Structures
1.
Amino acid sequence: MKIYDAGKVIAGLIIFFVVFTFPVYYNHGKVEPAPKPSLETEKIQSLYEKNCVEDKATMRSGHMLLLDKWRDTVVRDRLRSYAGFKGTRFEMSLSNTCMDCHSNKEQFCDACHNYAGVTPYCWECHLTPKEMK
Amino acid sequence: MNVWMSLIVSLIAIGAVVVVGAIGGLVPALHPVFGVVIPYAALAVFILGFIWRVLRWAKSPVPFPIATTAGQQKSLPWIKQDKLENPSTRWQVVDRMILEIVLFRSLFRNTRMELYKENGKLTYGWQLWLWAFALAFHYSFLVVVLRHLRFFLDPIPLPVTLLESVDGFLQVGLPSVMISGFVLLGAVGYLLVRRLYVPFMRYISLPSDYFPLFLIASIAATGILMRYVVRVDVVGVRELTLGIATLNPVVPDGINFLFYIHLFLVCVLLAYFPFSKLMHLGGIFMSPTRNLRGNSREFRHVNPWNYPVKTHTYDEYEEEFRDRMIEAGLPVEKQPAESGSATDTESAEDSAE
């Protein structure tokens, strides 16, 4: 059977195909390997028990919630001490507690955030470790 | 099908999709099937089905200029043409199509006949809600789809990151709330409630109307759950989706089963798309009432498959029955006195033929 306005229809279908397969040729078939956040800092290596504030799974999926809670507690209630999951008390501070162990922001924070395209607004107020020095 | 049957059928269908997706997510052995095989199959069905459907439409002839003429057609030079509502050139058609696709202008003109209780008059009223929510629905869906490009493109292009920061500019909660997701769910909710609440909409609605709404609502809901409640491993998800996009599939461990439900729902949407009403994505470009020129005064359009019609004109009729017409006292155009010579010329014409 005849296709009416074949030129226009096929041009439209080519545009459709090109648009919907955009990711295939945009990436050139190369994949950036999934990041592994590095724990290779002097402070972490020197720890006897390598524990974070909460357990690994909670930290991995919920660190942003913890930081949000810390911010609100410190700013609104002036409370600075937080009981970790092992009973250890931590000072609720991104710069002094988190970044003390994880001083390698580029290999730790940024590794996943850049991969997933997340831009946390921590560093709009907080200084990055490098800037502090 | 009445409303209950339609609702039950589409809810069972969507329930089955969710259950199958959940099984695919909960059984690790099935992850390669649900994370790689089914997405590729769905994509293939979507692209090939889309092309097939468009080509099938293109096989239907459109012999007549049936553009909707919502304004003054091009006429005499001193009559002002409404170029947008009644385009006569290709570029004017392009203008009208762009505005139709971007702003849904024909939906904007939606009217409804209603009996006003205050004065008992039957009046056409302007119905703007459908247009407003349709616009909200389509644009939020577009933003959601474009935001998801961060899972499929590497490096993530700047426009995608910018769109995301605009979408989340309220900076409420962590991870920060993306407005588009909730607008999408709300607008789908409106479209569903409209179908169920307005009696004549309920009467004409079929499972093929409810199912896409439930499907898109479930996709939005699982997406929202994954972002704000369950918080799936985004790095793992991106590994999987980038693998799909680069044709190097990988199946990372530890992705929550909710992601597999979400992914399977999207696959069903893609595979269902070309065979459903959702195909208006392609159909809008193929609408003859929109993409044709309103030039029926400028050009004579003849049905291309008109066969030679057998005619019997009045002249021929009178020639055949003149004598009897005169006998019956009926008026004739040519008098029989001239008919002698007329017959001569006619026979001369006959011989000339």
2.
Amino acid sequence: MPILSLITFLPVIGVFFILSMDSRRGELIRITTLLVSIVVFVLSLPLYFNFDPRGHEMQFVEKLPWIPSFGIHYHVGIDGISLFLILLTTFITPIAILASWHITKHLKEYMIAMLVLETGMIGVFISLDLFLFYVFWELMLIPMYLLIGIWGGPRRIYAAIKFFIYTMSGSVFMLLAIIALYFLNHRATGEYTFNLLEFYRLELSFAVQFWLFLAFAFAFAIKVPMFPFHTWLPDAHVEAPTAGSVILAGVLLKMGTYGFVRFCLPLFPAASHVFIPVVSWMAIVGIIYGALVSMVQDDLKKLVAYSSVSHLGFVMLGIFAFNIQGIEGGITQMINHGLSTGALFLVVGMLYERRHTRMIADFGGLTKRMPVFATLFLIVTLSSIGLPGLNGFVGEFLILLGAFKSRILYASIATSGIILAAVYMLWMFQRVMFHEIIHEENKTLKDINKREFAILLPLVLIIFWIGIYPNSFLRKMDASVNHLLKQAGGEVQTASHLQTQNVPVTPQIDIVSETETAW
Amino acid sequence: MLNLVSLILLFPLIGSAINGLAGKRLRKETVGYLACGAVGLSFFVSILVFCGLLLLPPEERLFEKRLFSWIESGSFRSLAALQVDPLSTLMILTVSGVGFLIHIYSIGYMHHDKGYHRYFCYLNLFTFSMLLLVLSNNFLLMFIGWEAVGLCSYLLIGFWFEKKSASDAAKKAFVVNRIGDFGFALGIMLIFLNFHSIDFTEIFSAASHGNFETGNFAITMITLLLFMGATGKSAQIPLYTWLPDAMEGPTPVSALIHAATMVTAGVYMIARCNVLYTLSPFTMTVVASIGAATALFAASIGLVQNDIKRVLAYSTISQLGYMFLACGVGAFTAGVFHLMTHAFFKALLFLGSGSVIHALSGEQDMRKMGGLKSHIPTTYKTFLIGTIAIAGIPPFAGFFSKDEILLEALIRGNFIYWSIGAIAALLTAFYMFRLLFITFHGESRVDHHVMEHIHESPKNMTLPLTTLAGLSFAGGFVGIPGASAINHFLSPVFGGHGHAEISGAETAEHHGAGLPYLMMVISTAIAIAGIFLAYQMYVKKPGLPKRLAERFRFIHKLLLNKYYVDEIYDAVFVNQIKKISTQILWKGVDVRVIDGSVNGIARLVGGIGNIFRLLQTGYIRNYAFYIVIGCIFIVVLAVFGR
Amino acid sequence: MITITHYLVLSAILFTVGVTGVLIRRNAIIIFMCIELMLNAVNLSFVACAHYLNSMQGQLFVFFTMTVAAAEAAVGLAIIVAVFRNKETVNIDDINIMKW
């Protein structure tokens, strides 16, 4: 059964269903969309269970010619790295749809946008053909743009355009680089193809790697977002509707980090190594900067948005540690961030629905009125802080351990991020949930209803699951991550040799392996 | 029997889960009995495990129970596995035992509180976390417990979250602990880097088999980083500031978490890593010095505080300083011994103060107490026992442990450590009896509205008090010099070091056999001097303290305001960071620089577009005209271009 | 003798007339007719060239052009009618809704 195609295009089929519906029958549209997304999730579960953790080869591969004259194929497949991102996508989407129950404006179009978005997101993670990848990459941009631009807050147009142009300007360079790879591959093998797996075999000179890495990295760094390309994120998050924020934080940001893992590292290993200091420092600055700026925000969504900058800094740091702990931690942290930050946005959305404000100062003392909500909120907050026993810790610890193994200094500075995380999250939690109720409006707030509970509960359960038994996730990615390291690390030697010969840029190369870290 | 060890963890966890999920629907009694029963069962199993351990020959007293593999990545592996050895057994007995008594006490104390089930849920969760901390067999699992007790402390300090001071204190506690945990986490990573494992047994055997020479830099860094974690959790200089504020929580919580168990986690951790610490003389000096400094520093603040619980809080910090002093000079047994006796009498004192507060309808200011002796006799009697114990009068528990620490400080450390310890002991005796005299003796300064409701606490509160009083009296007998059962019991863990016996032998050689006895006399004399001083000042001549305070206004004010450390921290760190984040990072870098340039580019493009826009008239005619011009241009180019 | 040049010159003149008409006239219908004129001028040169080169391709293309012209007439007139209904005028100076 072509399961990957099925989950990718099922939402599109759902779109046709919804198109045929009367736009006045809101409930029907909502339930259909939800059902479609749930079916997609259920169909994606066999991916996890049937995934063979022993091999690093792509699994569930499907390959059909698409535009054969240009060597473009419909070529999809997953490994242990993309597996969890797909599951995350299929898991988050129904939750996001459930969280948009209150949408009434252009409901039909909204739900269509959500489903198209899901197709785009899954497509990005499964594509093994760079052309196909690019198509999906741009495809998911459009519904997100519409979600922010139509269903967003007061400054939605500004935010939507900013989001769109930022991402576009990055992906243009990526497109250039993809085309360059296409021709370079032709020059090397005489074959025109966009097949990623073929590109992996290319041996590029350092100078070429350097520029192509930059082009790819630029696109991904914007998407992550890494400091200093992050300023679209707070605006987009603040203006986006709740579900938009959830998907943006939960899945879209992961495309940046996923891109680094899938493309930059294995395609341009030598360049990646050269860029370790640059990327790591950007990540570290992002961690601390994001945390500090997050701390002083007075808008809840902005606070969470900046905290994303900080969290994704950790992911990048882990990936560029170039060892198994770092990368596995990074991937775990991608999932964790999707879950806990997604949940935080949901929580903020619930508050917003009740009070129509996101200002921290407008709240206070909510625990008294909303005890169940308070408990769930606290768990989510703690997971974001990285409390051991919850998911955040597993990722953060492995990342820091990996970073520590490769560069002690980086890890030591980055670890201070966990202190700051406690400061900004707990301070926010205190101001929102504790103290006496000062505002009259807050005295009549209702605790969460069944739908809202159903939204948060699965997230909380998985937060515990990853925190207590992460091995069920880590084991599936071992082979793929090891293979990735072989691709990314194995060529280091040749690359450093090339570099000393003919490249003027000579930052020191970090030989990464199980070597003893010198004191 | 040792196999039962996982039950010790399981019971409180289940209790917490049930109370947390369904506590609202349960009856109050059920909630209380459930929570107490869970910890009680845990205590019972702990005793079984203890007996099981005693049945084994001393050198085989190490049992590991693997539950599952927690985090595995590459060569890194952290198991969820429990370790039973004399040290952890001693700890689980103390934690579950004292915890059990405090649970019972809480039934009475928290009876009228609306968050009854929430309280017991947290309290059980805390017990679980603390037991996990002491039972874990590797650093990372210990770190779960380490952070989880911090979380429970956060939840319980902020239990009355409507009060701003309470939620502030809770946040402060968590954040300050996090600063320590930062060090602890780095320490774990460094351990993994050097030992390629984080299992206690593997690390300690690697370390003790001479793979690392004494003074090894890596080991020094590891131990220092771990100690940083300990300063946070165990409230030592410079991270002690959260503990006095933590008194915002319900009093039984202060007793359980902020006196008897959680704050001793740092001491436990250092005792657990004794092998590493002894390899690093530098760290040992740091530990001992910080311990000694904290002991003195906190005691001096305790002299003038007026809040009954705050006095006890500073006394806790000071006593923890003692324990670190002991560990720092290598007398791990003495440290752990004091940890245990301190758990008894400090829990007693806190619960006693809780009983006072309960009787006075929530009043905590000692200036509004006085003469309570006859009104709440049971509380008074038990409190007196606790006070004597902490002051160090033989044969009460505190005497033996404190005396041992002072003795070890002199023998293994130097005269400075001893004298600091001795001065702190003097101060301790003084301020504890000051507390006792102001609260229970003299004339009543209680408001008469409050006076009408004054009552002795119910049975379920006094019972734990009397039990703890018994322990505070008798608990020291396990460590009588010369025939110390605790020394003997703990010797497999502390191996060649941390033994009073050995040091006793050395003592005999160097100082003559009489030294320990001389020291006993001296420390008793110190304690009595402190008590006498307090008696003179607060019973005989009640006007004297005031005159002294006026005479030494500056010092008094300095002490009363706790050396202004909180204010300094606020001014130097908290406010500066907030200011920098807001003004420079957010409004400067983010809004001005980055967004400014991004929007600037957008505006530039827009401006250029505005110029070209003028060509766009909207008249098709004009567009057609452009086309024609274009065509002509192309034709011209084609014809004449070559 | 009428050579190919005559045809081409005539075609050019017709085309220029068409272009000038499009550029200077205000009435949409007349502009429309001028466009037709341009198309027919091109048709003329197609036929002439086809005859001259003895090839059927030019002739064929005329059919295409005529089809397009017919379609254009249909759509164009419909647009003009629609515009007239809205604006009550076919003076193109009044129709500048393409301006942003």
3.
Amino acid sequence: MAEKILEINNLDITFKTTAGEVHAIRGINVDLEKGETVAIVGESGSGKSVTMKAAMGILASNATVNSGSIIFRYHHQDGSPTEVDILQKDKKWIRKHINGKRISMVFQDPMTSLDPTMNIGKQIMEGMIWHYNTPKEEAFKKAVNLLKEVGIEDAEKRMKQYPHQLSGGMRQRVVIAIALACDPDLLICDEPTTALDVTIQAKILELIKRIQKERGISVIYITHDLGVVAKVADYVNVMYAGKIVEVGNINEIYYDPKHPYTWGLLSAMPDLETDDDRLYTIPGSPPNLLHEKEGDAFAPRNRYALEIDDKAEPPMFKVSDTHFAATWLLDPRAPKCEMPGELQERIERMKKEANIDGSKL
Amino acid sequence: MAVNYNADPILKVKDLKQHFKINESYTVKAVDGVSFEIYPGETYGLVGESGSGKSTIGRSVIRLYDPTAGQIEFDGLDISGKMRRSTENELRTKMQMIFQDPMASLNPRKTVGEIIGEGLDIHKSVSSRQERDEKVGAILEKVGLAKEHRTRYPHQFSGGQRQRVGIARALIMNPKLIIADECISALDVSIQAQVVNLMKDIQEETGTAYLFIAHDLSMVKYISDRIGVLHLGHLLETGTKDEIFDNPIHPYTKSLLSAIPAPNPVVEKQREALTYDYKTSGINYSEGTYHKIDGSHYVKCTDEELEKWTK
């Protein structure tokens, strides 16, 4: 088994707001192995970004971590392995040893994550100079190579340009170059392509994939776009209201989903073959985590909800060695329940297209 | 409701040009000679990357901009030049718009009732306070909100509900054409489906036509009857959704379609998007003329290009 580089255990976070305490993360576990890609999928407010901010030690000041640990493993420059619990370290230490150096982040909007008053070259070199004291000339050379690596032509000329002189796709490439500047072990991409067009989105995703393969780094994607996830991820965590409700490898989640919320997410997104009169929807909207509810948080929107869903929160039921889902439907005592027909048809169609049969899953 | 293609189009756009002069020597040609028609009860989808001019077309059609050249005919009235009072009244009531960001397009200092009823007040289409309240209440229920929501403010709603308010505001004047400019892009996946279903129901019930502007191609395919593909201000290809998706001719359309991520991991992992670069493609959009492929499927290109692409 490959080495686990990130392990989030039983993380629980609340935010103090003027309206009261918001229980944003309610005990989640995420594992990431070296060289793997994990996607965290969920709607806005499900807590996917907060989780990753916790891993970067950049939580807002009104956040309290109630329990849990985030274990990050990396190698020192001399090759000796180290293990830290990021939650036990103070911000200054994380800033010096982790952020940008071991774990880098690519944010959603490349216009707001770049400094408009600083040229591209300086922004890429900044990290290397700060973390490794790289001499300026060497840093410059490295930055030019990085720009070439992320597919920017005329790299030397671009070094002197400012963010506003580049198109959206170019800017996101620059952001990726900055993230890679210090050879991180882990890249966190928070909705990296949401602000971009489809054609550019495809290029950026292919770029991240290529770099990941070449450098052997691990990547975490935070996104709500299941099409993007299908393209890049090895494992998928589906989050809802601060909890992971289903986790599995990519084929298990797409061809054999078990949780009604995953069914809803998959069906709500039309694929090119969809010609039903109506799209399947998840009724209602995501819950307000200010008001904690007994039982399963998804129950009010779940048309397959059982009585027990209002009383007790479902545990993670095991489907296979890698596939778990938190829904009472998987309890042996639960009535037999199938996913919606349209989705079943679509999965059959997808399997046919992909040339796989059920036994290979 | 089936679209009646024998009826006169509700909207006819002919050779629309929208140029923005930046300075003496530089003009942005955001829209450069675009023609299309929308029939009553139809949904016409406009797709293209950012900067292709799709939003500009929507804004020119509803006359938020003064078109540089070209003709726009709405319900038999010419709305492209200076309009008569009666024409403008017709345009301002029968054509409505739904915007992308429901938070930015709703006045935070007005209640939802005031926002929705504003059109009624301006056009004096109701005679009493009671009638106004009844109409606003009925529209709110139609879009899946409650009458009681009338007294609330936009910030008290969730994103999906706010977009429902935006739709209610557009619907209150019984429009014949609604321009939906990226109206679902800012919403969550599960909420997107709700809003799209609502828009379809409303079309079924009222027979309104939509100009649906979006960059999410699978959603555009789902909701539209016909589709136009825009790039750099030129309408490169137009046709029914099946004509476009099953038989794309223009290399740009092909690259656009190949970039759509499908929720099918095994297929998706092996696929690579086609690359298309206008500068190196050797195509000059301005030289192309519209060539009929079949039915309502047209491609903008030269004779030689068509021969090359369909070979």
